Amino acid sequence: MASPMCREIVASGRRAAAAAWGRTMSTASWWSHVEPAAKDPILGVTEAFLADPSPDKVNVGVGAYRDDNGKPVVLNCVREAERRIAGNLNMEYLPMGGSIKMIEEALKLAYGDDSELIKDKRIASVQALSGTGACRLFADFQRRFLPDSQIYIPLPTWANHHNIWRDAHVPQRTFHYYHPETKGLDFAAMMDDIKNAPNGSFFLLHACAHNPTGVDPTEEQWREISYQFKVKNHFPFFDMAYQGFATGDPERDAKAIRIFLEDGHMIGCAQSFAKNMGLYGQRVGCLSILCENEIQAVAVKSQLQQIARPMYSNPPIHGALVVSIILSDPQLKSLWLEEVKGMADRIIGMRTALRENIEKLGSNMSWEHITNQIGMFCYSGLTPEQVDRLTSDFHIYLTRNGRISMAGVTTGNVGYLANAIHQVTQ
Amino acid sequence: MDDTIASHLASSAERRLSTLSHHLTGHSASMASEIPISALSPSATAGSYGGVSSVFVNILQAPEDPILGVTVAYNKDPSPVKVNLGVGAYRTEEGKPLVLNVVRKAEQLLVNNPSGVKEYLPITGLAEFNKLSAKLIFGAESPAIRENRVATVQGLSGTGSLRVGGEFLARHYFERTIYIPQPTWGNHPKIFTLSGLAVKYYRYYDPATRGLNFHGLLEDLSSAPPGAIVLLHACAHNPTGVDPTLEQWEQIRQLMRSKGLLPFFDSAYQGFASGSLDADAQSVRMFVADGGECLAAQSYAKNMGLYGERVGALSIVCKSSDVAGRVESQLKLVIRPMYSNPPIHGASIVATILKNSELYNEWTVELKMMADRIISMRRQLFDALSKRGTPGDWSHILKQIGMFTFTGLNSDQVAFMTKEFHIYMTSDGRISMAGLSSRTVPHLADAIHAAVARIN
C-alpha cells in the first residue's frame, strides 16, 4: 500500500488488533480491524448485470468474447487439443520456467517464426499466469534488479496495471495517451512525455488493441515512438493481450513489437492467450525479456524462475499443453488463425453496425471513433452520468469510464444499444 | 463408461505420450556457471547503434534449485542402476508417475461436457471447489464451516496458498514474524520473506534421535513474542517425516493458545501420510475445535497426483462470518495483482471428485494404496538394512511418516552413494520413499550400508 493514509489505517488497525489481543484473547478476532476491500470495478459490473431481472439487459462490461448469440465460445481448435490431452499419462510438475514447447511457440508468435533472436537464444522467457502473471513477474524482476527504476503507464490503462506495479513496489507515473477531445491518441503530448522522461525510463506499452480505449498508434507513429525511445534509451515493456484480436491477423498485430525489434530495442513482453485462444480461466501466458546474448538470457531466465518459485513454484500445465498443441500442429494452427480472425471480424462488424445505427438515428455527434478504435473495447466518450443512465434506464452494463466491450454487442442488441446511447447523449 | 475410456486410452496412448513428452521436456539449455555477463560481446543481431546494452547486463545466474538439481543430475547419469530419490513426486512400483483413475474419469467427464466453458473464475476461484476443500481439511461437520466463519480462496497449489496467506498476514496482522520449523521445505523461508514477513526458526528435528525435539519446540514457541505466527506441517513433515503424536499436538495447541500464537498450517499430504484423510487432518481440526483462529494451506499436488495443475486452497478460520467476509475481500486484493484469478482445470477435477460420492470413495482407495506402498517401502528398507547388519538404529525409517525419510546420512555419505551407487538424493540425507520400489530397495540398502561403513 503506497499512500501514507493507507499505511496509517493499517498501522492503527494493527494497534487495535494488538490491543484487542491484550484485552480478551479468547474472544477477539485477529481480523476485526480488517476493512472490507473495495470491489473490483470491472467485475462488479458483471455482478450487477447478473442480478438484474430485466429481459432487455445487455452486458458490455467485461472483456470476454461472446458470439453473435451473446454466448461464450470455446474454440474448436481448443476442443480438439483438449480431447488429445484428456487421459494423459502425466500431470507432473512443469519446470519452474514452464512448458518449453509452449514458450517456443509463444515466442514465434511475438517475435516472428523465423526470428534470428529466437535462433540465437537471446530471449529469456518463462511461462506465466496469463497476462497478469507475466506483468507481475516482470514488475517484481524490475524491482529486484533495478530497484531505483519506475514505470511509466499510459493514461488510461487497464486498472490492474496500477495494482501490479504497486504490489511489486515499483513507483509509477503516467504518460499522456488518450485524447478525450478526439477520442483518439494524444500523440503530441505522449511524445513530449517520452522526451521529458529521464533517460532509461521504463514504459508500459500496449502492443495492440489498447485497453480500455481501443486507440492504437499508427504504424508511422509507432516508428516515431521507437525512434524517440532509442534517443532516450528507454526500456519498452509491451503488454500484448490481444494479438490476433485487433486486426484478425496475429502478424499484423505484432507490428509495433517488430518495429521496436528492428530498431534494436531490448524489449520485455507479456503475452496472454486468454482472449485470442479463449483460454481465460486456464491462465496461460508468457513473459519474455530480450537480452544481448544467450548466456545473459539464461541468467535472466534463472532469476525470473527465482521469483516464480516462492509465488507458485511452477505454472499450471493444462493450458500450456493446449497452446503448444495448437500452435505446433499446422492444421490446428490454421484452424486457430481462422477462428481468431472470425472473432476479430465479428467485432469489427459490430463496430460498423453500432456506428451506423447511431448515425441513422440522427445523432449530431461524431461517432467515427467507434470504427477508428480497434480491438475488444470502444471508449465511447460517455460520461459517468450518461453511463449511469444507460444502466438505470436501459439495463445496459458497462464500466463508468464509458468503455464498451464490443464483444458483448450482437446483431440482436446493437439496435437497442445504439438507441440507448443516442438517448443519453442527445 | 470405463470400458470405452479404457479402449480409447489404449488406442491413442502412444501418440499422446510422445506428444506430451515432446511438449513437456524439450532439450535443456546448457547452464553456464555464475559469471558476470558484461565480459561477453553482444551477438551479431544486437542493434548496431550506441547504447544498446541491456539494462540487465549485470545479472548473475541464480543457483540451481537444490531439489530440482538432483533430478537434473539424475537425468544426466547413464548408469542402468541409477535411482532417483530426490523430488517428492509419487512413483509406482514400476517407477512411473501415476495419474489416478478417478482423475482420468473426472477429466473425461469434464471434456465430454459440451457446456463447459473456460471463462475466468472469480478472483477467489471455483466456489464449489473452495467449499469442498474446506470440508476436506476441517471436516464436513466442523462448527467453523457451519457457522460460515471460514474464508477460503483457491490457490496455486500449496506454494501459492502459502504465499497469499503470507501476503495477507504482512498487510493485516500486527505481528510480522513467522516461526518455521528447523528444518523445513526449502521454499518456505523464501515464500514468507517475499510476503513481507520476518522468518525465525523453532527447533523441530533432533538428529540424535532422528525424531522430534519436542522439548526444544516447546521452549522456542514459549519464548516467541505474543501473537507470532507459527508454521505447522499438518502431517508428514517435509523433509524429516517426523510428526508430533496427538498428545504432543494437544500440548502444542495449549501452549500456542495460551500465548496467542497464530497457527498457519501447511497441509500438503492429507491422506498420503497414514492413508486416512481424517487422521491426517487431526492436528488442524484440534485447533479449529477450540474455537480459535488459524490459517490452513492445502495442496492437491500429491494426494490427487495433480502436481502440474497447481491446485490448492487457503482457508482462514475466523471468529465470525462477518470477519470472514471482510477477510475474503482483502484476500482478493492480494490475488488480483498477482495473477487475477486461478486456473480452472485442476480445481474442476478436484471438485468433480469431491462432490461425487462414488468418485470420492474411489479416491480414498487409490490414496490408501499409494500410502500403503510407501509404508511397505519403509518396511522393506528397514528389513534390508537389518539383514545386512548395517550398524546404527534404523527404526526411524519406520517411525517417520509420509513421502520422505530423513535418513541421518551426512552430505559426505550422500555424495559417496551418488558417486559409487548412482543414488540421487538431496545432500541433507532426505530420501523420497515414493521413488523406491521392491526392485531398487536392495541396491539402496547396499549403498547405505557401504556409506555407513566407509564414511563417518
From TrEMBL, chain A:
UniProt GO MF annotations: L-aspartate:2-oxoglutarate aminotransferase activity; pyridoxal phosphate binding
Which GO BP terms sit in this record?
A: amino acid metabolic process
Q: Per its record, how is this protein called by name?
A: Aspartate aminotransferase
Its family remark reads: Belongs to the class-I pyridoxal-phosphate-dependent aminotransferase family.
Names of the cofactor(s): pyridoxal 5'-phosphate
- As recorded in UniProt, its EC number(s) are 2.6.1.1
- Say yes or no: keyword Lipid biosynthesis present: no
Read off the NCBIfam families from this record.
PRK09257.1
TrEMBL record, chain B:
One further remark on this entry is: In eukaryotes there are cytoplasmic, mitochondrial and chloroplastic isozymes.
Protein's recorded name: Aspartate aminotransferase
Q: Which UniProt keywords apply?
A: Aminotransferase, Pyridoxal phosphate, Transferase
| BP GO terms, sorted | amino acid metabolic process
Catalysed reaction, written as an equation: L-aspartate + 2-oxoglutarate = oxaloacetate + L-glutamate
Q: Where is the Aminotransferase class I/classII large domain?
A: 82-448
Q: Give the source's domain of life in one word.
A: Eukaryota
Q: What is its EC number?
A: 2.6.1.1
Q: Tell me which InterPro entries the record gives.
A: Aminotransferase_I/II_large, Asp_trans, NHTrfase_class1_PyrdxlP-BS, PyrdxlP-dep_Trfase, PyrdxlP-dep_Trfase_major, PyrdxlP-dep_Trfase_small
* Family (UniProt): Belongs to the class-I pyridoxal-phosphate-dependent aminotransferase family.
The coenzyme or cofactor needed here is: pyridoxal 5'-phosphate
Q: Which PANTHER family match?
A: ASPARTATE AMINOTRANSFERASE, ASPARTATE AMINOTRANSFERASE, MITOCHONDRIAL
Gene Ontology molecular function terms on file:
L-aspartate:2-oxoglutarate aminotransferase activity; pyridoxal phosphate binding
Assembly and oligomerization: Homodimer.
| Cellular compartments per GO CC | mitochondrion
Does this UniProt record's set of keywords contain Transcription? no
Which species does this protein come from? Platanthera zijinensis
Question: Which Pfam families does the annotation name?
Answer: Aminotran_1_2
NCBIfam families listed in its UniProt record: PRK09257.1
